[in-house]
């Protein structure tokens, strides 16, 4: 397990507990009472740290290398029913954007999301979760397929942003994202969106328009990353913590501003500490959301979605 800078007190206590248990195994000394005291202190320290996280610390948790990614969630929720679909039928298959059909229970869903890598080789293969225009066009193709067959769409957001390279701009990155936003607002099938990690800029919004939008507890959703914001305002990345606070990018902030519908709770310490519980929470949220949305007619669904987004940012005196 890798530890973040603010998790070092937890690391020290866990190491003490391991040593204490090792002494008990290798000698005749009774260390059970000492181990219990360390365990109590460890639990208290964890609660104190994780219940008082700053915005920047939540950003750090959303990027934790052990945190589950899109395909982890999809495979856990759908088992062996998931069938990945490839290609945008124009350029190529974007490995940073994954999608396909899968079942939760007896209900089929079209799953779409950004996929990051878990080591150097897979990170390069997945382009660090940064999609090219063909990735967004693949996502739109799959959404249109879902619409045709009356299948609900589930999008899982986890990206540091759309790929900003020259070749992406040459192939119409901005147009591809704008087209997805337009088409998603009027898609005639339910869309359920969950931010499972980083939700950065248009890269996330390109598959982020939903009837129901949820954020996991230790995720963020913003027009810009704290580092980029800091570099623009202060010409340095040193002020990223202040930028994170000012951006109001946490799940709690987004809920207060009525930009998301609800927050999905995570196990203590983050989704990577208890993956199975995190998977079950997301699955339960998706099932409950669809049970609510399937009662609406197509006209009501599109109308409500349009109103949801046109009302954002509107203030009444």
3D structure, described in words:
By secondary structure, the chain is an alpha/beta fold. 49% of the residues lie in helices and 15% in strands. It contains 14 helices and 8 strands. Strands 1, 2, 3, 4, 5, 6, 7 and 8 form an 8-stranded mixed sheet that branches. A hairpin with a 2-residue loop joins strand 2 (97-104) and strand 3. Helix 10 packs across helix 11 (240-247). The longest helix is centred in the first third of the chain and has 19 residues, at 8-26. The mean pLDDT is 95.
Question: What structural keywords apply?
Answer:
alpha/beta; 14 helices; 49% helix; 8 strands; 8-stranded mixed β-sheet; single chain; 317 residues; globular
User: Structural class, please?
Assistant: alpha/beta
Number of helices: 14
Query: Main β-sheet: number of strands, strand sense, barrel status?
Result: 8 strands, mixed
Mean pLDDT: 95
Count of extended strands: 8
| Helix-strand string | HHHHEEEHHEHHEHEEHHHEHH
Which range does the strand content fall in? 5-15%
Report low-confidence residues grouped into runs of 5 or more: none
Rg over CA atoms, rounded to whole Å, is 21 Å
Residue share in helices? 40-55%
Report how far the terminal alpha carbons are from each other: 51 Å
* Overall 3D shape: globular
Summarize the structure.
49% of the residues lie in helices and 15% in strands. It is an alpha/beta fold.
């Amino acid at each position: 397990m890798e530890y973040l800078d603010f998790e070092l007190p937890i690391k020290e206590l866990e190491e003490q507990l391991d040593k204490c248990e090792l002494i008990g195994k290798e000698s005749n000394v009774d260390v059970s009472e000492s181990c219990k005291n360390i365990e109590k202190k460890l639990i208290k320290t964890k609660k104190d740290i994780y219940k008082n996280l700053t915005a920047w610390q939540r950003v750090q948790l959303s990027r934790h290398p052990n945190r589950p990614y899109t395909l982890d969630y999809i495979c856990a929720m759908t088992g062996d029913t998931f069938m990945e679909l490839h290609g945008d039928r124009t350029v190529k298959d974007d490995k940073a954007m994954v999608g396909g059909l899968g079942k939760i229970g007896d209900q089929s869903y079209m799953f779409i999301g950004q996929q990051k890598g878990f080591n150097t080789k897979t990170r390069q293969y997945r382009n660090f979760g940064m999609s090219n225009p063909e990735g967004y066009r693949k996502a739109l193709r799959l959404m249109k397929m879902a619409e045709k067959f009356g299948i609900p769409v589930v999008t899982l957001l986890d990206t540091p942003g759309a790929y900003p390279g020259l070749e992406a701009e040459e192939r119409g990155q901005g147009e591809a994202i704008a087209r997805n936003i337009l088409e998603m607002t009027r898609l005639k099938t339910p869309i359920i969106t969950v931010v499972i990690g980083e939700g950065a800029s248009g890269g996330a919004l390109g598959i982020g328009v939903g009837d129901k939008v949820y954020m996991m507890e230790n995720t963020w959703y913003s027009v810009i990353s704290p580092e980029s914001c800091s570099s623009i305002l202060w010409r340095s990345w040193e002020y990223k913590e202040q930028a994170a606070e000012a951006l109001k990018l946490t799940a709690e902030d987004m809920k207060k501003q009525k930009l998301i519908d609800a927050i999905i709770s995570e196990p203590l310490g983050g989704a990577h500490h208890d993956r199975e519980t995190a998977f079950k929470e997301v699955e339960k949220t998706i099932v409950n959301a669809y049970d609510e949305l399937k009662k609406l007619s197509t006209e009501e669904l599109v109308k409500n979605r349009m109103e949801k987004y046109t009302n954002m940012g509107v203030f009444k005196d």
